[in-house]
Write a structure and sequence with these properties.
mainly alpha, three-stranded antiparallel beta sheet, two-stranded antiparallel sheet, 5 strands, 9% strand
Length: 191
Protein backbone atom coordinates (compact mmCIF):
# COMPACT_ATOMS: atom_id res chain seq x y z
CA UNK A 1 0.00 0.00 0.00
CA UNK A 2 2.81 2.40 0.76
CA UNK A 3 4.25 2.09 -2.75
CA UNK A 4 1.11 3.49 -4.41
CA UNK A 5 1.18 6.87 -2.58
CA UNK A 6 4.96 7.05 -3.03
CA UNK A 7 4.57 6.28 -6.73
CA UNK A 8 1.91 8.96 -7.06
CA UNK A 9 4.14 11.53 -5.32
CA UNK A 10 7.01 10.63 -7.65
CA UNK A 11 4.80 10.90 -10.73
CA UNK A 12 3.46 14.28 -9.62
CA UNK A 13 7.00 15.49 -8.89
CA UNK A 14 8.22 14.35 -12.32
CA UNK A 15 5.22 16.03 -13.96
CA UNK A 16 5.85 19.31 -12.11
CA UNK A 17 9.55 19.24 -12.96
CA UNK A 18 8.76 18.56 -16.61
CA UNK A 19 6.25 21.45 -16.71
CA UNK A 20 8.75 23.75 -14.99
CA UNK A 21 11.50 22.75 -17.45
CA UNK A 22 9.13 23.31 -20.37
CA UNK A 23 8.26 26.80 -19.06
CA UNK A 24 11.96 27.59 -18.63
CA UNK A 25 12.72 26.24 -22.08
CA UNK A 26 9.94 28.32 -23.67
CA UNK A 27 11.04 31.43 -21.74
CA UNK A 28 14.65 30.90 -22.82
CA UNK A 29 13.54 30.44 -26.43
CA UNK A 30 11.49 33.66 -26.33
CA UNK A 31 14.39 35.50 -24.70
CA UNK A 32 16.80 34.19 -27.35
CA UNK A 33 14.41 35.21 -30.15
CA UNK A 34 14.02 38.72 -28.70
CA UNK A 35 17.78 39.02 -28.18
CA UNK A 36 18.41 37.84 -31.75
CA UNK A 37 15.87 40.34 -33.12
CA UNK A 38 17.46 43.15 -31.08
CA UNK A 39 20.89 42.11 -32.39
CA UNK A 40 19.65 42.27 -36.01
CA UNK A 41 18.12 45.70 -35.39
CA UNK A 42 21.42 46.82 -33.81
CA UNK A 43 23.33 45.44 -36.81
CA UNK A 44 21.10 47.31 -39.28
CA UNK A 45 21.44 50.48 -37.22
CA UNK A 46 25.25 50.19 -37.25
CA UNK A 47 25.41 49.45 -41.00
CA UNK A 48 23.30 52.56 -41.60
CA UNK A 49 25.11 54.79 -39.07
CA UNK A 50 28.57 53.76 -40.27
CA UNK A 51 27.60 54.48 -43.86
CA UNK A 52 28.49 51.04 -45.24
CA UNK A 53 26.06 51.49 -48.13
CA UNK A 54 27.74 54.75 -49.16
CA UNK A 55 30.63 52.80 -50.69
CA UNK A 56 29.27 49.25 -50.92
CA UNK A 57 25.99 50.02 -52.76
CA UNK A 58 25.90 51.18 -56.40
CA UNK A 59 23.91 54.35 -56.98
CA UNK A 60 21.21 55.42 -59.44
CA UNK A 61 21.06 58.95 -60.72
CA UNK A 62 17.87 60.89 -59.99
CA UNK A 63 16.82 64.51 -60.42
CA UNK A 64 18.04 65.05 -56.83
CA UNK A 65 21.39 63.38 -57.49
CA UNK A 66 22.65 59.87 -56.79
CA UNK A 67 20.71 57.57 -54.46
CA UNK A 68 21.42 54.01 -53.32
CA UNK A 69 20.18 51.38 -55.76
CA UNK A 70 18.40 49.18 -53.22
CA UNK A 71 18.15 46.33 -55.76
CA UNK A 72 21.97 46.19 -55.46
CA UNK A 73 22.15 46.85 -51.71
CA UNK A 74 25.66 46.23 -50.37
CA UNK A 75 26.80 44.19 -53.41
CA UNK A 76 29.92 46.35 -53.83
CA UNK A 77 31.29 47.50 -57.15
CA UNK A 78 29.15 46.10 -59.96
CA UNK A 79 31.42 43.46 -61.49
CA UNK A 80 29.53 43.61 -64.78
CA UNK A 81 30.76 47.19 -65.27
CA UNK A 82 34.20 48.59 -65.92
CA UNK A 83 35.83 51.77 -64.73
CA UNK A 84 36.48 54.44 -67.31
CA UNK A 85 40.16 55.11 -67.97
CA UNK A 86 41.91 57.50 -65.61
CA UNK A 87 42.63 60.78 -67.41
CA UNK A 88 46.36 61.23 -67.95
CA UNK A 89 46.33 64.86 -66.81
CA UNK A 90 45.12 64.01 -63.27
CA UNK A 91 48.12 63.65 -60.94
CA UNK A 92 47.30 60.62 -58.78
CA UNK A 93 48.89 61.19 -55.40
CA UNK A 94 47.74 64.65 -54.58
CA UNK A 95 44.40 63.60 -56.13
CA UNK A 96 42.19 60.58 -55.57
CA UNK A 97 39.44 59.67 -58.05
CA UNK A 98 36.20 57.92 -57.20
CA UNK A 99 33.80 56.15 -59.53
CA UNK A 100 30.61 58.13 -59.97
CA UNK A 101 28.75 55.79 -57.62
CA UNK A 102 31.59 55.75 -55.05
CA UNK A 103 32.12 51.97 -55.28
CA UNK A 104 35.67 52.21 -56.66
CA UNK A 105 38.62 54.51 -56.02
CA UNK A 106 41.95 55.23 -57.71
CA UNK A 107 44.78 56.66 -55.65
CA UNK A 108 48.48 56.26 -54.91
CA UNK A 109 47.70 52.76 -53.54
CA UNK A 110 46.26 51.65 -56.92
CA UNK A 111 42.65 50.89 -57.80
CA UNK A 112 40.35 49.43 -55.17
CA UNK A 113 36.77 48.25 -55.39
CA UNK A 114 34.12 48.08 -52.66
CA UNK A 115 33.54 44.45 -51.72
CA UNK A 116 30.32 42.46 -51.86
CA UNK A 117 28.90 42.39 -48.32
CA UNK A 118 25.87 40.26 -49.15
CA UNK A 119 25.55 36.67 -47.90
CA UNK A 120 26.12 35.27 -51.40
CA UNK A 121 29.21 33.06 -51.84
CA UNK A 122 30.71 35.85 -54.00
CA UNK A 123 30.36 38.11 -50.96
CA UNK A 124 30.63 37.15 -47.29
CA UNK A 125 28.39 34.09 -47.62
CA UNK A 126 31.20 31.66 -46.75
CA UNK A 127 32.89 33.86 -44.16
CA UNK A 128 33.03 33.04 -40.48
CA UNK A 129 32.48 35.65 -37.79
CA UNK A 130 36.20 35.41 -36.99
CA UNK A 131 37.11 36.29 -40.60
CA UNK A 132 34.76 39.26 -40.49
CA UNK A 133 36.33 40.46 -37.24
CA UNK A 134 39.83 40.09 -38.70
CA UNK A 135 38.82 42.03 -41.82
CA UNK A 136 37.53 44.94 -39.73
CA UNK A 137 40.09 44.83 -36.92
CA UNK A 138 43.26 44.00 -38.84
CA UNK A 139 42.23 45.18 -42.33
CA UNK A 140 43.00 41.73 -43.78
CA UNK A 141 41.44 40.96 -47.18
CA UNK A 142 38.64 38.40 -46.70
CA UNK A 143 39.75 38.17 -43.06
CA UNK A 144 42.52 35.72 -43.95
CA UNK A 145 45.86 35.76 -42.12
CA UNK A 146 48.12 35.56 -45.16
CA UNK A 147 46.15 37.96 -47.35
CA UNK A 148 46.91 41.46 -48.55
CA UNK A 149 45.68 44.49 -46.63
CA UNK A 150 42.25 45.93 -47.33
CA UNK A 151 42.97 49.04 -49.34
CA UNK A 152 41.71 52.61 -49.00
CA UNK A 153 39.22 54.15 -48.88
CA UNK A 154 38.02 51.52 -46.37
CA UNK A 155 38.11 53.29 -43.02
CA UNK A 156 40.52 51.94 -40.41
CA UNK A 157 38.45 53.17 -37.44
CA UNK A 158 36.09 50.18 -37.70
CA UNK A 159 38.81 48.36 -35.75
CA UNK A 160 37.48 50.11 -32.64
CA UNK A 161 34.04 48.50 -32.82
CA UNK A 162 33.21 46.19 -29.94
CA UNK A 163 32.90 42.44 -30.45
CA UNK A 164 29.16 42.83 -29.85
CA UNK A 165 28.88 45.50 -32.56
CA UNK A 166 30.85 43.46 -35.09
CA UNK A 167 28.73 40.40 -34.31
CA UNK A 168 25.52 42.41 -34.75
CA UNK A 169 26.71 43.79 -38.10
CA UNK A 170 27.77 40.34 -39.30
CA UNK A 171 24.49 38.73 -38.23
CA UNK A 172 22.51 41.49 -39.96
CA UNK A 173 24.53 41.18 -43.19
CA UNK A 174 23.81 37.44 -43.20
CA UNK A 175 20.05 38.26 -43.42
CA UNK A 176 20.05 40.62 -46.41
CA UNK A 177 19.38 39.58 -50.00
CA UNK A 178 22.32 37.58 -51.41
CA UNK A 179 23.58 39.02 -54.70
CA UNK A 180 25.85 37.16 -57.11
CA UNK A 181 28.51 39.77 -57.88
CA UNK A 182 32.20 39.06 -58.35
CA UNK A 183 33.98 42.31 -57.59
CA UNK A 184 37.15 42.97 -59.66
CA UNK A 185 40.47 42.32 -57.95
CA UNK A 186 42.48 45.16 -56.47
CA UNK A 187 45.00 46.60 -58.94
CA UNK A 188 48.32 47.88 -57.59
CA UNK A 189 49.55 51.23 -58.93
CA UNK A 190 51.18 51.16 -62.33
CA UNK A 191 54.84 52.16 -62.18
Amino acid sequence: MKTKPLSMVCLVAIFLIACHDKKNSEAEMIETTVESQNNLERGKYLVDALGCADCHTPKKMTAQGPIHDMDKYLMGFDGSQSLPPVPENVPIGPWVLFAGDLTAAVGPWGTSYAGNLTPHETGIGNWSLEQFKKALREAKFKGLDDSRPIMPPMPKHYAYLTDEDITAIFEYLKTIKPIDNVVPAYQPPSS
